[in-house]
Amino acid sequence: MPEKKKKFKYKPLSLKDILREMKQNIDLMIDLAYSAIKFGSKELADETYKIEQRIHELTFLLNFQIIQTQPRGFKEAKKLEPIVVLGYSIDKISDALSDIARVVYINIDISQFTQLFWDNVPEPIVKIAVYKDCEFIGQYRMDVHFRSKHGVDLIAIRRNGNWLIGKEEKILENDILIIKGEIQPIKVVKKLCYDDDPFSFQIDKEKKESEFDLDNPEIFEKIEELKKNYILITDISETMIELAFAALFFNNYEVAEDLLELEELMDGLNIAFEKDLLDLSKIIGKTLTGIMRIVFSCELIADAAANIAENIIKGFKPHRILQIAIEETSEIVVRESLSEDSYFRGKTYNELQDSRYKRGFHIIALKRESKWIYSFKPNFIFKKGDLIIGLGPKETVDQWRKCVHPEKFKD
Hints:
This protein is α+β, with helices and mostly antiparallel strands. It has helices spanning 15-39, 42-69, 73-101, 103-106, 110-114, 141-144, 146-150, 183-192, 217-250, 253-284, 289-313, 320-327, 355-358, 397-404, and strands at residues 125-129, 152-159, 162-164, 176-181, 331-337, 362-368, 371-373, 387-393. The protein folds into 3 domains: 15-111 and 216-321, Methane Monooxygenase Hydroxylase, Chain G, domain 1, CATH 1.20.58; 122-192, Regulator of K+ conductance, C-terminal domain (Alpha-Beta Plaits); 330-404, Regulator of K+ conductance, C-terminal domain (Alpha-Beta Plaits), CATH 3.30.70.1450. The strands form 2 sheets. A 4-stranded antiparallel β-sheet has the order 1-4-2-3, sandwiched between helices. A 4-stranded antiparallel β-sheet has the order 5-8-6-7, sandwiched between helices.
């Protein structure tokens, strides 16, 4: 179980540094939480819990720093309101992500459920073994630039039974890499690692029998019903976090309004999912508390993201400190319009997964005429005039922008 809480020692930090660390920690928590339930790892769940505790400390520091500033009058207080709301919302998101990870303590076999439809999620989490002649061997993980060069994220390394999440770790032969990304870039990285084995999620040698008998038509049918909503719930909640930061960064009223609509959609999806899950529980004769807790936590994440959006709709403008903090994180949020000569124009979403265009960026939203789009099918075609909001590494932002709008960013 997670270690006992240690007494908090006050260490002053600037508002900018607090917000930057909170944002980076949430990004890491998302990956660790879903990796924990994907591989049934209590160790990764404990790492998620440690980050949650750090975010609680940062929330305290944030509030303490704001109190110390002693804003004079309504105007000064109003400027700081978005920072207070963001801090509170991030704290709630961290609680929910930690709860998702700790499901492995409730249902150790939760991984059996999450692995049933791993290839249906937009960005699956998989394991890739590093074999002899792999070009990554001997390199520090931060020097490989997995996101910008290969279009995937390296979440953790499994070595000799231990989990390594530090960026200063070297990649060694026989390491197991926990990778997240679109399926095509994942396959490329798998090939670079000389891993020719079929996709597998068994971390330890001991193989466990699945409790979901997919040969039973009744169970198979219920799983299929659950699959669609489970993928939607987990994907929408994660997307809502990204959209909330984007809406706040750009002070975008339209995206904020859509976030509130997505939160209402989440409510309906949760009700439908809970009903189907109870039906499945009756068929297999076992309570599926852990799965129920995951979708409930996703709803809490959606509520927190909507809370950020409400702040924008009420007319509160993001403080410059907040925008600087987001700019200084490892990933940057940018928006750009497709030009006539755009490399994206006329291409499908699937074609844009090619590293020549992707450059490590993930398209989180697109505006076409007056409509915002947040989910893309593989055959979705990009057109001139589309406004794209992308999230990706700083080192390739100029390259990505040149792909979207070459004329605007000519050398």
